[in-house]
Amino acid sequence: MPPQPAVLLVDDEPRSLEALVRTLEDDFTLFTAHSALEALDILAAESVQAIVADQRMPDMSGVDMLKLVRERHPQVVRIVLSGYTDNHDIIAAVNEAGIYQYLLKPWHPETLQLTLAGAVELFRLQEENELLNVELKSSTPWLKERVAHKRAQATENSAMARIVRTAGSPMDAACQLLTRVAPFDIAVLLEGESGVGKELLARALHYASTRKDHPFVAENCAALPEQLLESELFGHKRGAFTGAYQDHVGLFQRADRGTVFLDEIGETSPAFQAKLLRVLQEGEIRPVGSARAVKVDVRVVSATNRRLVELVAAGRFREDLYYRLSAFAVEVPPLRERAGDIVPIAQSLLAQLAPACHKPAARLAPATLARLSQYRWPGNVRELKNELQRLLVLSDGDELGPEHLSRQVLYGAGENESAELEFLGGVDGDLKTRLETLEKRIVHETMTRLRWNKTRAANELGLSRVGLRSKLTRYGLEQ
Where is the Sigma-54 factor interaction domain (predicted)? Predict the structure, then answer.
């Protein structure tokens, strides 16, 4: 097995550093530093492929430190974490320092893992490129072209390879389509149910594209009211509206030369759709309250859990915007159509979730895996993730048995069966006692519905009047 890539983590806050370590320790060999000066000493002594640095540190800012790293160790791929969301100076400094990626706090574990995977891949390709440049100095032009094509193809495939699935999975078709379209600046629309992993695919598409060295930003269009969504995407000027105390750089501007992912695009208002259409047509944004337009170069990837064609037909989505966004549409299959992927996805999610619950050695029992595989997962991967978190919280040991699964997963129930199973699970006693409890409820429900007409109730229940009277007396229902 090849050695794990080496990554240096720099943060003066012990808890933040610990969170980074828990997220990355399974996939990388980690070095940690609590200050910029300590980090520079480690870089001088150790071979490191990537560095992740916090922006706010007492001795030196993250960006300033990474400028020094660029001068002394230019091959190391640089990533900065920052809590600032609208600071022009930081964004400019990030570009000046040649930083590979700029991640906002609070960072998402999957985002950080994918970013570092891309950084390590970039480091590998840089080393390979240096060797190839030496080897190909005397080679023929056609050989140079062939090697360059192979290298580009390997980068694209590595991004899609991180989408967890089994051989022959229905997800293969979506990944193959995205791999083909990745090198081209074409708008992509991802269609599929909520929770199927559309954002994960959008990130993989970004890292397989020629824009991989520039930012990827995401926004859920259904999570914000129209004015805030416009401000978040396009930015605003100070005083543009109540609460706008300073200028704000929007996501489109922060993602310049990168990718913008717009989730739940079908939930936007007609007014916002008109503004977004203009941005796509003109290639420029106008911050709220500004008289000046700003040119931006972004690739737009959008996603929806609704059929945009139907929304267009109903007059709730602009037809011209639909054709702009869906230049290349990809259908993402739900988890119930990918039964073979459930186990590897569950195990991958468990590896991510377990450290946060202080159970790094947690594993799924065979009986648990069987139950997970049999369930239809109407909430897709998001529901599966919630179920695994439940197991981690409720289980005492490292082996996660099926006894702590929710009832609908444990019994493979559909939505209509959940209430029934909830009742059955609450009935105490042995089998005979439980059956008598159910019989009492059935008799009582029938009598109440038929307004205590004993003749009709006896006929419906298949009893004689004497038999019905006996049960009413037995269960104390006669009165």
Answer: 164-393
